[in-house]
Known about the structure:
A hairpin with a 2-residue loop joins strand 7 and strand 8. The chain is 40% helix and 27% strand.
Amino acid sequence: MAIDINAVYKSTYEHYLKAKNNIVLESAFFEHRADAISDVIPGFSADKLEFGSYDKENFAVLFVDMRDSTKRAQNIGAEKTFLTMHIFLTALLEVVKYYHGKVIDIMGDGIMVFWGGREARAKDNMVKTEAVRNAGRCDLAMLKVRSEVINKIISSEGLGNEINIGIGLMFDSVVVTKIGINDSYDVKAFGNCINVASKYSNSYNRMKVSKKVKEIWPSSKTGKLKFVADNGGYFVERGQ
């Protein structure tokens, strides 16, 4: 069943109105933040890891990023940027939730999401094919929500020009480790697939995936997606 765009629109607009009604016009309130969501990597708990230890696991890794966000913020100002981010992030997070992704980080104007791993395999039987399928469907839904929810509200509320996004998707191993000191620590994931997924999100309103994702992506006789090669990766496009 496809995601309910009307439900996403309703939820996003409700969050926007809350932000609008509670807006505080103080410069400190609008400082750029890039705080991580701590200790959320599926299957790994900070309490059970030793500092400096590490483990490897395979995940489908998605990056979605707002393009030209700094320039946009300079053009529309702090208040409209604040309201824009409540629309932008709320809508995308609703899509992630629908496709059972695990939000690992919110980076101000972007989101990193994981699918798969041992916990998902044990709990939900989410093997790598299913992880890639969910991540890919999430990507495509985000592109639709961008035009039919995010930019629709942006336009109706007079919050500046339309928002453009880029999406990158990889599937590979990541290294998970505990970093910090006793009273201040986090569980973080590192790996080439994370770096490449981030670079793949540097396009405009397109999804770019790795060769491994293309190979894992489930195919069907009625499938209308096509993969267009681009510098080692593939843009995913809908066929006619």
